[in-house]
Amino acid sequence: MNKLSMMQTKLLRITFSYVLTFLFSIGLVSIVGCSSDDSSWRPIIDEPSGDDDDDDNGELNFTYNPQSSLKDLAAYPVGMIVSAAKLSSSSDENESFKSILTDDYNSITAENDMKMANMFTAADTYDWSDGDEIVAYAKENNMRVHGHALLWHQSIPGWLNNFDGSDEEFETLIENYIKEAVSHFAQETFEDGTPVVASWDVVNEAFDGAQMRNSLFFQRMGEDYVAKCFQWAREVDSDVKLFYNDYNIAGEGTKRNSVINMVNNFASEGIPIDGVGLQMHVNHDWPTTNEINQAITAIANTGLLVHLSELDVKVNFNDDLEELTLERAQEQEKRYQEVAEAYANVPEEQQFGITIWGMRDRDSWLYEGGLEWPLLYNNNFEYKVAHRGFAEGLE
Ligand code: G3I
């Protein structure tokens, strides 16, 4: 179906929907079930819709009806986080998840399934099964996988935390893990030979402010452990894109400078690295727009790929809301647009993409207690105006 006929179809449907809504409103017709087989068709919702999910404190969500998918608007990959459980489940909820996933996105990151705590089950023992499920789904749906994350101090399996071998033995375990993981996930390719797993966060959050974090890896492998991990990954895969990933690169200038110094030193010392992930867990009012632009530009100036790897926008950081207000929803819309517009300034050849860290507000790592609404879709999978802001910023 070409765009014009698609637009005509949508126009007819919009008209039909308004007529139906009018007839329904005057009681001339009751809608007992109206579905469409066109997966791109979405309900017309441009009024504040009450959330019928009572355990969400009757929060009001303010939504809209998108006309294009995010991946069609963006000049670069747009990503979403997933889990093997969500992808393999055929529940109504997860079917809705997958419908939006394949409609709006062309890149996926495992929220937790490809982390060390889930895959490194014992010494020289690995469980790739969840990651394999995600890769299989991505291959079937022609979506890129970004591997997250080979080393992260918050995802160390208990047995490794308690490992009582020597530092040398510890380092050998890590070297073998990295080489086995990168090799394993390099195997699946699309028909054209392109690997499904395009990239890895090799090390996540090695800095604590401006200093190297005193993590188990730092303690047992020394301050050059980050470089070692990138070298080991490159030894087994010459093509996969290797990223360093961290939070508050926009927001903490001293931390940003330490990251930039590290990656510049890698370049001068011949340590293989391809990109930097700015997680971008931001607030509707922090950091400043100027700081966000400065940070993205500073990372782009390293010449490496730039990934906004975990974007979400908190709107209740100061706990001043009992429900999402229209005003704050619109501030969130503006913030998502600003971030996407800032990313547009990255040279095209360095635009690795933007990944959103969760689908519905309730799916977010920030949702605890239900008084945070950081994402693009509400708890009914409706499109929040935040989605509109992000879409505007992609155009
Ligand atoms: O799977 C277990 C379940 O069996 C158990 O019953 C339950 C209760 O203990 O825990 C479940 O595991 C949780 C896991 O998410 C899966 O839901 C872990 O406790 C919980 O700590 C883990 O949180 C994740 C967090 O990273 C720590 O790994 C979040 O979902 C995830 O969004 C968050 O993402 C991180 C990025 O990877 C790195 N950047 C920061 C970002 C936010 O912390």
Strand and helix map with partners:
Elements lengths: L2 H23 L23 E2 L9 E2 L8 H4 L4 E5 L1 H5 L3 H13 L2 E4 L5 H4 E3 L2 E2 L2 H12 L3 E9 L5 H4 L5 H19 L11 E8 L2 E2 L2 E2 L3 H6 L3 H12 L4 E6 L6 H17 L5 E4 L2 E3 L5 H12 L4 E10 L11 H18 L7 E6 L28 H10 L1
This protein binds ligand G3I.
The site of ligand G3I has 9 residues, from loops.
Provide an overview of this structure.
There is one protein chain. With about 400 residues, this protein is an alpha/beta fold. Helices cover about 40% and strands about 15% of the residues. It is built from 14 helices and 15 strands. α12 (about 290-300) runs parallel beside α13 (about 325-345) and α13 packs parallel to α14. The chain is globular. Residues about 1-10 and about 25-60 have low confidence and may be disordered. The structure holds ligand G3I. Ligand G3I binds near residues 112 and 365.
Cα distance, first to last residue? 22 Å
Helix content: 40-55%
> Unreliable stretches, pLDDT < 50, 5 or more residues?
1-10, 24-60
Mean pLDDT: 89
How much of the sequence is in beta strands? 15-25%
Work out the number of β strands.
Answer: 15
| Main sheet: strand order | 3-4-7-8-11-12-14-15
How many individual helices?
A: 14
Bound molecules: ligand G3I
Rounded Rg: 22 Å
Element order, helices and strands?
HEEHEHHEHEEHEHHEEEHHEHEEHEHEH
